[in-house]
Every structure is written in C-alpha cells, then in structure tokens.
Amino acid sequence: MAKDVVVPTLGESITEATLGQWLKQPGDVVKADEPIASLETDKVAVDVPSPVAGVMGAQAVAEGDTVQVGAVIAQISEGKEPADHATPKVEDRTSVGQAEAAAPPEPAAAPVDEAADKDPVTLSPSVRRAVLEHGVDPSRIKGTGKDGRITKDDVLEAAKQKTAAHAPQPAPVETAPASALASAAPVAAMAGERREERVRMTRLRQTIASRLKEAQNTAAILTTFNDVDMTAVIEARSKYKDLFEKKHGVRLGFMGFFVKAACMALKDVPSVNAAIEGDDIVYRDYADISVAVSAPNGLVVPVIRNADQLSVAAVERTIGDFGKRAKDGKLSMDEMKGGTFTISNGGVFGSLMSTPIINPPQSAVLGLHRIEDRAVVRDGQIVIRPMMYLALSYDHRLIDGREAVTFLVAIKNAIEDPTRLLIDL
Questions:
Q1: Residues 154, 157: Cα–Cα separation, whole Å
Q2: pLDDT tens across 202-235, in order?
Q3: CA pair distance 270, 406, nearest whole angstrom
Q4: Would you name the residues annotated as active-site residues?
Q5: Structure pTM?
Q6: What is the CATH number of domain 221-423?
Q7: Measured between alpha carbons, how far is 272 from 406 in angstroms, rounded to an integer?
Q8: Residue 119 gets which letter from DSSP?
Q9: Where does residue 9 rank: exposed (0-12), middle (13-18), buried (19+ CB within 10 A)?
Q10: CATH number of 92-104+117-164
Q11: d(Cα 367, Cα 393) in Å, to the nearest integer?
C-alpha cells in the first residue's frame, strides 16, 4: 500500500517552500520519521519525514521546484523491499550504459571491490556534477555535511588528494624525449582553464537579500561606533567559568553579558527598542533580543523571548541551544518571529569593524567584533588592553544621534564595569 508524503504545515503565513534536496531516492529503504527531503522556506530549511516505514516510491516534484503546503511530493510503499537491481544514483546513466556496452566480460573469479557492496550515496545535483567531473568514487569520501552528507568541498578535496597520489615524478631533463615534452603541453593548458558554475539562490538567501535591501530602501540607516575595554569581563569569565559551567551546565561566554547590557540600555533609551508602523511609533516594555546565528544555508536570527527577565545563565543556555539546532536545521518558524532588537557577533569570524544593517521592522542592531590587544591611555599611561569595537546601526527616522550614542555608551559602561548589571546602573 502506498502512502502519500505531503508538505507539512510550515508556520503561520508560510504557504509554500522550495524543495531543496531529495535525501532519499526511489528504491531506498526508509524508516518511519526518517527525513526524505529538505524544504527551503523564507527563514529555515525544514526536513520532511517519512510518515511510515517502507520503500521510497515515485517523486512527484524535482529539486528546485516550488511546492505548496499540503501538496503530495512523493509516495512510500509500506512494508516492501527494494528490488535487487535498484537504479544507480551517482553515475550518469548515459555514461554507465556506454561503459557497460563497451567493457569486455569480467572473469568469473574477478575480485569484488568492497565499495561496490555499500549502499549507494545520495548526492545533491551540484555534488553529483562534481563527482562526475573529477572522476572520484563518492563511496570512499567521508562527508562533512549534515548527517555525514558529502559536500562539494569534500569532492574537491578528494580530487586534490587523488591527483597528488597519482602525480608522476618529473623525469630528468636530459633524458626526457621530445614526444613527452609535446604531450605535456595540453596538460599545462588545462591547468589554467577557467570555469564558472551557476547555482540557483536558495529561498532563504533570496529572502535575506530582499529584506536587507528593503531595510536600506526604507530606513534612514546611520551607524555610530565606540570601543570597549573587555578586561573586566574577561577576568570575570576566567574566574567563574568553571563554577558557572558546573552549576548551570553551560559555558560562560561574552554574549550573556552583552545581552543583559543591551536589555538595561533599552530601558534607558526606549526609542531603540521601538518600531515605526505607518504613522505610529510602537514602544515596548519588553526586550525580545534577536541573535544572529550561522546555519549551513545562511544566517538565521532566532529570538530570545523576554531576555530582560532572564539570567545570564538562561541567556547562554538559550543561545547555545539555538546554535546547535541551527547547524542541524531544526529551528522552528516561531523561534525566528518577532524580535525588538538584534545583536550580531561578527567577531567570531574575525571581523574588526562593520556597519550592520537593521532587521526590519526593528530600529537598531548592535554589531560586536573581534577582541584584540591595543595600546590605550589609562591614567596618563600607555597600556595594553583587550579592546573591541562596537557598532550601532539605527533608523534615524526614529532614533536621534544623541539617543544612539547614549545607548552605546550605556553598553560600554556596563561591559567595562559588570557590577552595573547587578545594580541596574
């Protein structure tokens, strides 16, 4: 009996998605609730689980197609076993057929390649194209992607190792025949070959591009900068990190301090936490802090709800959970809705300074950057301190320069003297 696989409900106001990748192919054995396809929405990638255990049947849509919520995308045959002559998934069918026709019969006692007994590898179109182009065996490649999937970088690295392993030793110049020198010319020409690859933008990347451009076209974005001495926070973290992790089960990072400092500054300067809706300004007495998290398909911004009411431990625990589930593609739509203020930490990637773009309909975003030792003046003496540049981008239609600078200085003061966070000063 065949069971339909339908596009699940993706969240409020989300009616369609793009089928990013088939994780199972016709003939594959699947377990109940095992992901068989990955959907790309405006915000996250969502896996479609198999409703029953059985064998993957016909696929109703192709990778890259737009599908509606509730649409049938495949069928699962319950309780059936795949045929022994399942269709290969990696090799190009035309080249396989030609190779089989041209190849002479194998001797009966020919040794069997162990890789041939393995399950066929499911590859995305770009990875499959790279496998065929470089002539590598995907069954011998260890995938570094989600759930051990092979990425294009894995294929390129395998091809590089294959080339290095089979590279012939250079012959002495005096003994090299003219024919060998002539045959080397085409190889040199191929080494300088230039290639291009056209890849369709994912739905998530399209949405990011659209929203960021919308922010630039709508808001009057201005950025103000300051620097902050991280000495006090670094010392506090070094002194208490072991006790903190033992008690709360999570590592003490810097984001917990910045989130709490931002919440305190938002109370002092409420316009930074407000938003423009038509001709009205909406002020909030709560702080839902969006934190930018890196995911395989792009940057996502889950929201820490009521961050102003959470402890540093609760903030760190929430951020750690967001980061882990973002890498696994398990963040839900509801977790990325709303948000009154955003913190983006480009310092984890080595950024020295940036001008972040606000996340509409929010009115401001705080950019954090890398910490580095710099020479500064303290009490008339030149000393070395761990310094970080802070950047606050804000909508000048709503927030005046005085308010923006006041907000950023409040964060600077709280980080340089964390005691302020305890006494709300």
A1: 5
A2: 777 777 788 888 888 888 999 999 999 999 999 9
A3: 11
A4: 396, 400
A5: 0.61
A6: 3.30.559.10
A7: 10
A8: P
A9: exposed
A10: 4.10.320.10
A11: 8
Q: Is the pLDDT of residue 36 over 50?
A: yes
Query: For the chain, how far is it from start to end, CA to CA, in angstroms?
Result: 67
Q: Which two tokens mark 189?
A: 């020409």
CATH 2.40.50.100, applies to 1-87: yes
CB atoms within 10 A of CB 80: 14
C-alpha separations of 222 from 13, 370, 413 in Å: 32, 21, 22
pLDDT in tens, 295-350: 766 678 899 999 999 999 999 999 989 888 888 777 777 788 889 999 999 888 88
Strand order in the sheet with 45-49: 45-49, 35-40, 16-22, 66-68
Residue intervals of the chain classified under CATH 2.40.50.100 are: 1-87
Structural tokens at position 27:
């003939």
Residue found under tokens 């989130």:
259
376: tokens are 């500064």
d(CA 270, CA 285): 8
Residue 396: how many other CB atoms lie within 10 Å: 14
